[in-house]
Amino acid sequence: MNVDLCSTMYNGVAKALLGSPYFDQCSYHKKLSAGYVDLYRVRTMDCPNPICRSYFPTFETYANTDIYAGCTLTDESTSRQISFKEFAVVCQGIASSSSSPSPAPTGGLLPPPLPPTPPLPSIQARDNESNNSITIIVAVTAIVVVGILVGAFVYMRTKRKAQDPPHSTDFVHIVDPAVHQDPPTSKVVRSTQPNTNHSTAPTATTTAGTTATRLDSSVTHSTNASSFQSVGGQLDMCDLDMYRLPTADVRLVKALAQGAFGEVWVGEYHGGKIAVKRLLPNKSALPDVQKFIWEIKLLSKIDCQFVVQFIGVAWNVPGDMMLLTEFMDGGDLRSVLDANKSSRSFTWIQKLKVALQVAEGLVYLHLMDPKVIHRDLKSRNVLLDSTKGAKITDFGIARETDDSTMTAGIGTFRWIAPEVLQDGHYTEAADMFSFGVILAELSTEIIPYSDLRNDKGNVYTDTAIMAKVMAGELRPSFATDAPMWYLTLANECLAVDPDIRPTAMQVAYGIRSQLEGFV
Predict the structure, then answer these.
(1) Do the strands 331-332 and 382-385 form a parallel or antiparallel pair, or are they unpaired?
(2) Where in this chain does the entry annotate a coiled-coil region (predicted)?
C-alpha cells in the first residue's frame, strides 16, 4: 500500500473539515491527518450526530476505492490498528439522534460560505502510476467538497427545525412549469377550513388530464393551513398583496410535474391557460413558504420578453400560495432536444434563435439593479413556445445582489461553472459558463458529458465529471459539423477562468450577427 497516498487523503479530508464550522462538534477529523481516530468517541458522539455522520458515506466511498483499500488508522480507544474500511462503516447500525445538533459558531441560521478546499499535496508525475495518482487526488478533492456540502445541507435542515426562517435571499428550487415527467396519477384538493364569504366547495379529486378543480377561498391543499393563520405574522410577505389575485378565479386543469418541494399544474385564469406552481403540502413549513415568497417577489420585478412572464399570486393562507405565470406550449428545451433525435423538426436556425433569446434574457437579468444571477441555467429551465419563442424560467435559487460576487447555492452540476464547484464563488460569469453548456446541448442534442468515457471505456461518474471540470480537463462535446464561430463562442463561455468569459451582451451580439446571415 502506498502510505503517501493514504496520508495525502487523510490530510486533505482533515484540512477541509477543520476549515468548515459545520464539523467543529465532531471528533474524528481532529487527529485524522496524523492517522489517529477514537472509535469510542466516534460511536458515542459522532455517529448519533446527523452532521458528523453525514460525511461517513464519503469515507466509505474512499474505502471502497482500490487505491485506498489498504489504508489503516490507529484507534486511540483500544491502541490497535484498524483498517480504514472499519472506520468508514463504524456508524452503520447506530441510530442518528433526532435532537438538534449543537450550533456551529455562526451568527445566524445559515452557516457561512464554505472555504475553498485546501489543495492536496501534488505528486510528481514520473510514470503512469504517478499520473493515475494525481487523477485520483483530484477526484478526492471533489468528493471532499461534495461531502462538506452534504454536511452543510444536514446542518441547515436540522437547524431550521428548531429556529424561525432566516432573513436571507436564498430561494428553494422547485420543478419548472414544463418538465415532461410522468404526472401524478391523482391529486386530492382538500377543504381544510370553513369560509363565510363563499360557498364551501366539495372535496375534489383531480386526475391529471381528466378533471379540473376550481380553487375558491374555502379550498386549500395544506394540512397545516390553520397554523399559518396563527403565525403568519412571522412571514415577510414582501408586499405581495399588490399582486394578489382571487383564488376563486384560478382553475387547476392538469398536473404537469411534481418534485421534492413543489408541483406544477396547467391552470386557467379568466379563460386563459397559465402555469401554476405551488409547494407540496408537506413542504408548507414557514421556511419553505418564506423562500417561495422570495422567489415570487423576485419574479415580480422582472419584465422581459425573454423571461417567463409573471401574472400574479393567489392564496387563502400562505401555505397554499400559488405562483401564476404564462404557459409555454412547447415544453422545455431538454425535452425538445430529446424528441428531435427522431423527429428532426428542430432546425439549426431555430436552435440559433433559442440561443439568442436565452442570451438576451441573461443580458436583462445581469443589467438589472441589483443584478440577478440565475445560478441554475440549464436546458430544463429554458421553455419554448410556438409563438413566443424561448424564455428563461425557474428562479428557485436565483439571487439578486448589490455585490460583485456571492457564494453558496448549487444548481445542477453538469451545467455549473468550475469556480462554483470549487468554492461556491458566483458572479454573472457562472451563468455564462452554463450558457456555454447549453450551446453544446443545442449542437449535439445529448445530455452534457453523457457521450464521454474514461480510460477504461466507462461512463464518467458524477464525481469524476466535477473533478475534471474543476481541473479544466473536461468540456462537453460539440457536433463535428458545428460552425467554427459557434465553437469559438461556446469555448469562450466555457473558459475555466471566469474573468475571460464573454458577457451576455457580447454573446448576444455575436449570435445576432451570425443569425442575420442566415435570415
Answers:
(1) antiparallel
(2) none
